[in-house]
């Protein structure tokens, strides 16, 4: 058994440059586990030694290799380090082997593709070596899950209609002409139609008064055919958002943003009437993919009232050990790297790099960020908070953007509306 | 400048045995900072090498020393490692010096006492070396702070009486004959008297009905001379605590346990009417001791509705990066050890050991746990969740038990009652 340390230049492995030693060990162990311990294999451990070539790094690589082989059951195991930059090699003459080129390198378990990587070293000319691609994370298919949920909801609604002759109703209030808001509202209406929820829409001009909005809310509060009321945010700046949202009666607050709901969500032994849609969708994805939460370390990045904070409270309710990382956090990478489950909701494209992710972690990406891309017809494409390309090589599961959390939000809105109708009509 | 690594056997330093490397660095840096960088000093870094004497440990010590001296401004600094077990020394012949015994070792800055420590090593017989004791943490004197706050409240109340002829009123409802509850209620009454708050007390028999309690709450809700209502918990088991607490009108809920209050506490941009007394007291202690919270790592141990959860929300409001550790957390020591601020509220005597604490951390101990002690007149004494003896040698500040958070809870109840009266009467 041999461990070779190979410097190569894929963007994936360059992340190791920034790693703490603890993470390096974990990383090495992770790779080790993916290899068949009974075969006479060689592992590749990539380090961009040009950047980190310091005395202590080499000592650490050596230590790491020793640790791996100490924990291995094979008594004949040997650690060999293959370093592509030998300027400091003389510092540890006894423990670090001299440069040797590897010709056949197996990496990961079952990935079908392989790619050619060019390595550079000071003791030999650049050489091309063949490595298998890394095992990629399971893609958490929010689109499919949301579709399943919509189908389940449709079944329940037709049962409800049959049994008591009532279908759930959702009222949406849209103020102003924001294009994105109009799109959201249109999508919500479409989703309601698809499952059999009646939707009621009120569109008010940008210069409407707060009182007009409050009047409409009040009417919907009293309307027995409406089970959920949704005020599309943001409201025009001349309105007090808090006043408007507080006017929605708590039994119809399908958004779940009422402080009383949030308070109940935070408290043990209390039950919220509604759980906010996006964080509920995140947890639902974990459940549907059988990802255990209890006892896991979870990091929520972002602490908004709409996603981050309620997501943290939900994870806590499921017995995760939760940390919230936010703009004032001094070492977000370090903390995030400890997480078994990461939920990111900050709105920063590609902020969470591969180096932030513990091998095997589960990543839920709430961010939907447009970035310029002249190759796209619209001139931009949507990316998440998590750098998918890097993180998907480290994580065990990840939501894509788009097609991850996005479709779940509306599915959960439908679910909350159905829940409300069932509660109001004392069904099951 | 020299760094010596000395193995010795105090219980305090044996904790290093379990440390992660990252923590080791931090530890070393911490010690380094406590020494005068301009003098020709020697630092002691304690490691129980018998337990951890492995190749990688030495590499890490070496790395650590290198890092420390790289970050030091002195160009003439040298790292010297003094190892008391040299079985593996040959592995790093160039970087680790051979065994040398130190005779004068300075440790910490200003501690007056010193003690003798026996060291063991394989290359020389056991020897006695003299080290100064560690610097002890600042004791956060909750009793004194609570007294200050009571005095401030008394001044405000007499001003209020002068200006509008009204004094705050606090109503307490006690059901049953629990001795501890009776004591708490008596103490609250006494504290009210001391600052000039009118207290109203209702005592009901153990077998009273829930309705009777609700009737009393309703009367106090309507009574304009009552500004705060407190139902002493726990209630007899035949009553629904949630129903009873929900009956207290939110404007008089000085305990701050109403879900609406908790929801507002959790939400950014919202303000709770009242903050629960014990967590409010914890944060007040930090403020009064000028301990910065913003950007700090905070760990709250315990997630009760009464202390742990609201304490976490409060720390979060002050821009700390908060993690909540609870009974389902798999590695509480490891997480707790990352914290700059620890608030412990679990009710487990001495659960948080010295090894759980990062050097320089601030410790707020909410636990008040009786442990048997035949030497005490009562047969028991009170200890906190944090092992004071060990932790006070590592922390920079710590609350004692008793005399730490305890006295703050009642002070904050008085503060909330005053706040309520001022709000109801539109004062400032």
Describe the structure.
The structure is a homodimer of 428-residue chains. With 428 residues, the first copy, chain A, is of the alpha/beta class. Chain A has three domains: 2-135, no CATH class; 136-164 and 272-412, Rossmann fold (3-Layer(aba) Sandwich); 167-254, Leucine Dehydrogenase, chain A, domain 1 (Rossmann fold). Helices cover 37% and strands 16% of the residues of chain A. Chain A contains 14 helices and 15 strands. In chain A, the strands form five sheets. Chain A has a six-stranded parallel β-sheet. Chain A has a three-stranded parallel β-sheet with strand order 7-6-8, sandwiched between helices. A two-stranded parallel ribbon of chain A has the order 1-2. In chain A, strand 9 (297-301), helix 11 (308-317) and strand 10 (321-325) form a beta-alpha-beta unit. In chain A, helix 2 crosses helix 4 (55-71). The first copy, chain A, is globular. The termini of chain A are far apart. Residues 1-25, 31-60 and 62-133 of chain A have low confidence and may be disordered. At the A-B interface, helix 4, helix 9, helix 11 and strand 10 of A face helix 4, helix 9, helix 11 and strand 10 of B. Chains A, B: Keywords: Hydrolase, Multifunctional enzyme, NADP, One-carbon metabolism, Oxidoreductase, Photorespiration. Chains A, B: Catalyzes the oxidation of 5,10-methylenetetrahydrofolate to 5,10-methenyltetrahydrofolate and then the hydrolysis of 5,10-methenyltetrahydrofolate to 10-formyltetrahydrofolate.
């Amino acid at each position: 058994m041999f461990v070779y340390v190979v410097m190569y230049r894929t963007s994936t492995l360059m992340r190791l440059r920034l790693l703490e030693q603890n993470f390096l060990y974990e990383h090495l162990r992770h790779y080790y586990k993916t290899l068949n311990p009974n075969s006479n294999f060689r592992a590749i451990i990539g380090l961009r030694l040009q950047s980190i070539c310091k005395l202590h790094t080499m000592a650490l690589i050596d230590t790491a290799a020793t640790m791996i082989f100490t924990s291995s059951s094979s008594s004949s195991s040997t650690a060999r380090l293959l370093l592509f930059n030998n300027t400091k090699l003389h510092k540890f003459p006894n423990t670090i082997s001299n440069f040797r080129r590897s010709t056949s390198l197996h990496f990961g378990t079952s990935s079908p593709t392989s790619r050619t990587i060019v390595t550079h070293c000071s003791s030999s000319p650049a050489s091309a070596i063949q490595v298998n691609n890394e095992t990629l994370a399971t893609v958490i298919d929010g689109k499919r899950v949301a579709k399943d949920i919509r189908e389940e909801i449709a079944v329940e609604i037709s049962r409800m209609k049959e049994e008591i002759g009532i279908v759930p109703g959702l009222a949406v209030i849209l103020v102003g002409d924001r294009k994105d808001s109009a799109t959201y509202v249109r999508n919500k209406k479409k989703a309601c139609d698809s499952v059999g929820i009646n939707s009621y829409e009120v569109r008010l001009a940008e210069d409407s008064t707060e009182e007009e909005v409050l009047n409409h809310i009040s009417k919907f509060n009293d309307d027995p055919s409406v089970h959920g009321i949704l005020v599309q945010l943001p409201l025009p700046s001349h309105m007090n958002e808090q006043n408007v949202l507080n006017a929605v009666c708590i039994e119809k607050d399908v958004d779940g943003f009422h402080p009383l709901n949030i308070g109940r969500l935070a408290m043990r032994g209390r039950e919220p009437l509604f759980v906010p849609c996006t964080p509920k969708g995140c947890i639902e994805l974990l459940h549907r993919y059988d990802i255990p939460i209890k006892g896991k370390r979870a990091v929520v990045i972002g602490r908004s009232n709409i996603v981050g904070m309620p997501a943290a409270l939900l994870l806590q309710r499921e017995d995760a050990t939760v940390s919230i990382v936010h703009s004032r956090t001094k070492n977000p990478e370090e903390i995030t790297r400890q997480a078994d489950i990461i939920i990111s909701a900050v709105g920063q494209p590609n902020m969470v790099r591969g180096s932030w992710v513990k091998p095997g972690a589960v990543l839920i990406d709430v961010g939907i960020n447009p970035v310029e891309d002249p190759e796209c017809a619209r001139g931009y494409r949507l990316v998440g908070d998590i750098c998918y390309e890097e993180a998907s090589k480290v994580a065990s599961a990840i939501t894509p953007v788009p097609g991850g959390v996005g479709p779940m939000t509306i599915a959960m809105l439908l679910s909350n509306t159905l829940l409300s109708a069932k509660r109001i009509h004392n069904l099951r």
